Please model this.
Amino acid sequence: MAGNFADTMTAVKPSYPLLTSRLILRPFESGDLDDLLAYMSPPEVSRYLYTEPLADRAAAKENLGRKMGAIQAENEGDAIFLAVYLPEAERVIGDVMFYYTSRGHRQGEIGFVFHPEFQGRGFATEAARVVLEIGFQGLQLHRMVARCDARNLASARVMERLGMTREAHLVENEFVKGEWTDEFVYAIRRGEWEASAQPVMA
Model:
């Protein structure tokens, strides 16, 4: 856990941008349209998601508009979407998400999606650690979860590198894109995160 992170946070809204050793996490901007389309249009990116690949710039513009407005989590049900910008590539390579699922039970959920060209290099893990900090340090949550299609082993490995534990393997629990699918549910509690958290912010 970065020593100066608490100083740059309010209870519900990060002080942007958030910097790691390799990445810049910030709200989406109108100029991110082409980058968003680039990483959300390949079929392999959406294979295990509920959504279909973005078909064109019009679809990307609609998706971008929703994400641009999601920058703070004050109330239950709020979401934060952050663009993950890689300076060495001079582009947004993916995004990470925080969803405030329960104020009373102090719980949240994280998610992430990245361009295939930049997968397998630890970027998703690096960016998702920041999202855990938003939940645990910024909102003082008790527990955070992440879910993935059981066939999406790459995402499952990211969750495990984050220190999350697989708590459930739900068998054919959802009908997605014409087929019954299994789902993994991972979770980490505040005490576990505090014991294993590594410095993230640069």
